[in-house]
Specification:
By secondary structure, the protein is an alpha+beta fold. It has 27 helices and 29 strands.
Length: about 800
């Protein structure tokens, strides 16, 4: 069977024979169940499930049937591994173009979903892993009349994936030269019209007008003719169809008048002006779109091409970055970029991480500290052990998340896409009706033609297609530069509506680095108490455990630990040298039958001082009490004030005692406090807020608060940029700065507001412009200018978001 699959693999897609990988099959019964499930899918043929290869083989007539098969696999209790592929798309002009590419990609068997963004000129395709090759996707895009390239972010140093960017730069240069020539040829045609209001009457000979307009019609118009042909060949219509029809009607009507020598009105200037203005608008739009997507390109440019590797003999050698492996030792000199995530093994210095984490000032890093790819080494000579390479580095994950967000679609954009799909055919009908209506009312051919052409030209749907993606690209890009990663468009929409923000205490509002400030032993010496406690908490990574270990010091002796148990949100237990030891919250020890009455006075004193108590029991008896204190993060109180100014209610949830939580809440300015909460309690409380009609967000560390993050409308993970669980939350803050929380909500609100503004202006241009053109109140030349201006308006409005920084536009 395996040999047959190998022989047919090259032609599998062409024959629509699909080899779909399946996870979760363990026995022959699993294969039989899956076989039965697939046999119920209409349209599937030649079904065979191969347990050894963990694959389902079948023939499918179309991509929709493949998706139905994938759904059947999932419903049967198994999984089809997914893979996300990014492509850069070249040649798109409007929302209709994006819809055509999307349709072509979704028609490829094995594609589960495709989302195309006209502003970032990219496509995000989710495929069944191993079923679809990138070449199949590129072929589908090219079949729709466009070009596709693997994105620059996928470049591994060979430079192959940079083709798209290089091609766009060359095309931009060619178009700039073409525009300059078009302007020189069009100006003489426009000057007589411009001179008429001042009493100057100038009439250029008809053949001279033709000589000026013809090169513009051929050279500039060619791109629109080519796009129109490609669209019509695939049964679609886009802005190229409108521009081609409008300008061709004006040009060839004028040519016919010239050849007949009838002396009728000429519209050579209209066709030339429209083409020149539309080209100028497209160039402005292209430059603006590049500005909107500058954040991702800036992140991509952080990746060094080469690294200095130190071999086992200490010899330094320059190698390509993609040749590095985990465990290699590399050298980074002062001023150099760090080529991979790693740990400093020798040296120290100030590291500039601004473009990755948004940290405005360099941070000190020394031996044992982690560093991230793309950061700049300021002063010291660093020897770094590589810890992550390629797609696993922090920078690669940041780029992946930003691209994922920018490739998404808001629900309103899906509605716009449906409108755009029928927009051009409707406009063609309006243009024909306008032309016929003018003739029917007795107008001459020239007047009817002018009105019809004006309708075609002003109605180009470029602005409509760019309204949402341009704002999304600019907004998420600015957020990324500030160290705020918004995972997808749904997270952005939810974040803009948030009215309640729940903060975890430790590591979020506080530094998360508590210190032991008091200790009391009962019925044993302090050294014995420390030995028992450190022996047990040495296997725990809780911040309180780390604080106790730091207080005891590395020289503290330890006993033999067995039967270690971690009870989430309560404490740890185990046997140290055969003695049962428990370390944790006072309430937990009481629940387990430990009498800690002797410590009640001490516990009250700790509460008054806002210290967190950790009680130790040994052999079923009270052994000691530690008092630990954490400090409020800088900016926490300011963040709470900004949230209140935005109309958001802050809430503090903590697993600490009520007195400790109230003390931290008072310092931060939070009145609503929930204390003594286990992780599941936090999740239940966040879910209750949602049921009560609130729109809650949860701010935590992305690990211990995973359940609460998932229960919230928006989960916000706060981290340091290296250990943050970026895939675990809807929004990730790349550095532990509380002020980024109100900043994240503000950029979400501004992006949502800009999308609404752009859609208003895009629709307004057409709603106002089309009737004016139909009634003969707009000339074709003016319509061309207005159409170009509409695209520039919405992209320019979106570009305002690129200037956003945290702290701007406080409300």
């Amino acid at each position: 069977m395996e040999q047959m699959i190998e022989q047919n693999s090259a032609a599998s897609l062409a024959g629509k024979l699909i080899h779909m990988p399946v996870e979760g099959m363990h026995c022959g019964n699993c294969a039989s169940r899956l076989q039965a499930a697939l046999e119920k899918v209409p349209g599937l043929e030649k079904i065979h499930v191969e347990l050894a290869l963990e694959r389902a083989h079948f023939a499918a007539p179309d991509a929709g049937t493949v998706r139905a098969a994938e759904a059947a696999v999932t419903s049967a209790g198994y999984a089809v591994p997914h893979q996300v592929v990014q492509l850069d798309i070249d040649g798109m002009h409007c929302g209709n173009c994006a819809s055509r590419v999307e349709t072509a990609l979704n028609a490829v068997p094995g594609v589960l979903s495709a989302s195309v963004n006209a502003a970032s000129e990219s496509a995000r395709i989710e495929v069944a892993e191993g079923v679809v090759q990138i070449r199949d996707l590129i072929a589908a895009v090219e079949g729709a009349g466009y070009k596709a390239f693997p994105p620059k972010s996928a470049d591994t140093g060979t430079g192959v994936q940079a083709t798209a960017e290089a091609e766009r730069s060359r095309a931009l240069g060619r178009d700039m030269a073409l525009l300059a020539g078009a302007v020189l040829l069009t100006l003489p045609l426009v000057l007589p019209m411009a001179a008429m209001p001042f009493g100057f009457s100038m009439h250029l000979p008809a053949w001279f007008q033709f000589a000026l307009a013809a090169p513009v019609q051929v050279l500039v118009g060619w791109r629109f003719y080519r796009g129109a042909y490609s669209a019509l060949r695939h049964g679609a219509a886009n802005m190229d169809v409108l521009v081609s029809l409008g300008t061709s009607a004006a040009f060839f009507y004028s040519l016919a008048v010239t050849l007949s020598a009838s002396g009728g009105p000429l519209y050579f200037e209209a066709s030339a002006v429209v083409l020149t203005l539309v080209l100028a608008g497209k160039l402005l739009e292209a430059r603006a779109k590049r500005g909107a997507s500058a954040a991702v390109r800036a992140l991509m440019d952080l990746r060094p091409r080469v690294a200095v590797k130190i071999d086992e003999n200490g010899i330094e050698q320059e190698v390509p970055v993609d040749a590095l492996e985990v465990g290699d030792r590399i050298l980074v000199r002062p001023g150099g970029r760090i080529p991979a995530d790693g740990v400093i093994r020798a040296g120290a210095g100030e590291i500039d991480e601004a473009l990755v984490t948004g940290e405005s000032v360099p941070v000190a890093r020394a031996e044992g500290d982690r560093v991230i790819e793309g950061a700049i080494n300021g002063t010291g000579r660093l020897e770094i052990e590589v810890a992550a390479i390629g797609a696993d580095t922090t920078l690669a994950r940041v780029i992946r998340l930003v691209e994922q967000a920018q490739a998404g679609k808001a629900p309103v954009q899906r509605l716009v896409d449906r409108v755009a799909a029928v927009f051009v055919p409707v406009v063609l009908v309006i243009a024909v009706v306008t032309f016929g209506g003018w003739l029917f009312t007795g107008a001459d051919l020239a007047t009817a033609l002018s009105a019809g052409v004006a309708v075609l030209v002003i109605a180009c749907p470029c602005a409509l297609g760019l309204a949402t993606p341009a704002a999304l690209v600019a907004g998420t890009g600015s957020a990324a530069r500030a160290g705020i990663l918004i995972k997808d468009i749904e997270a952005l929409e939810h974040l803009a509506r948030v009215d309640t923000i729940v903060f975890d205490k430790t590591g979020t509002l506080t530094e998360g680095k508590p210190k032991v400030v008091s200790m009391r032993a009962f019925d044993m010496g302090e050294q014995e108490l420390l030995m028992l406690t450190v022996s047990l908490v040495g296997s725990s990574e809780h911040p309180l455990s780390r604080a106790i270990r730091a207080h005891a010091g590395e020289a503290c002796p330890t006993g033999k630990l067995t039967d270690f148990r971690n009870i989430a949100g309560a404490g740890v237990a185990g046997r140290v040298d055969g003695t049962e030891v428990a370390v944790g919250k006072p309430a937990w020890l009481r629940e387990n039958g430990i009498d800690i009455t002797q410590a009640d006075t001490i516990l009250s004193e700790l509460s008054e001082r806002a210290e967190t108590p950790v009680v130790v029991a040994a052999g079923g008896r009270l052994a000691g009490v530690f008092g630990l204190a954490d400090t409020l993060r800088e900016g926490a109180a300011d963040a709470v004030r900004e949230l209140r100014a935005q109309g958001v209610e802050p809430v503090l949830m903590s697993g600490d005692a009520a007195a400790v939580a109230r003390a931290i809440g008072a310092r931060a300015g939070i009145e609503k406090i929930a204390a003594d909460m286990k992780p599941e309690d936090k999740a239940q409380e966040v879910a209750r807020l949602g049921r009560d009609g609130r729109h809650p967000a949860m701010v935590g560390d992305g690990v211990n608060d995973a359940a609460a993050l998932a229960a919230a409308d928006v989960g916000i993970a706060m981290g340091s940029g290296t250990d943050v669980a970026m895939e675990a939350a809807s929004v990730t803050l790349m550095r532990p700065e509380p002020l980024l929380v109100p900043a994240a909500r503000e950029i979400a609100r501004q992006t949502a507001r800009t999308i609404r503004q752009n859609l208003f202006w895009a629709f307004a241009y057409n709603v106002i412009g089309i009737p004016l053109a139909a009634f003969g109140l707009l000339s074709p030349a003016f319509a061309g200018g207005a159409m170009a201006l509409s695209s520039v308006t919405v992209v320019g409005n979106a570009l305002r978001l690129t200037r956003w920084k945290p702290g701007m536009n406080k409300s």
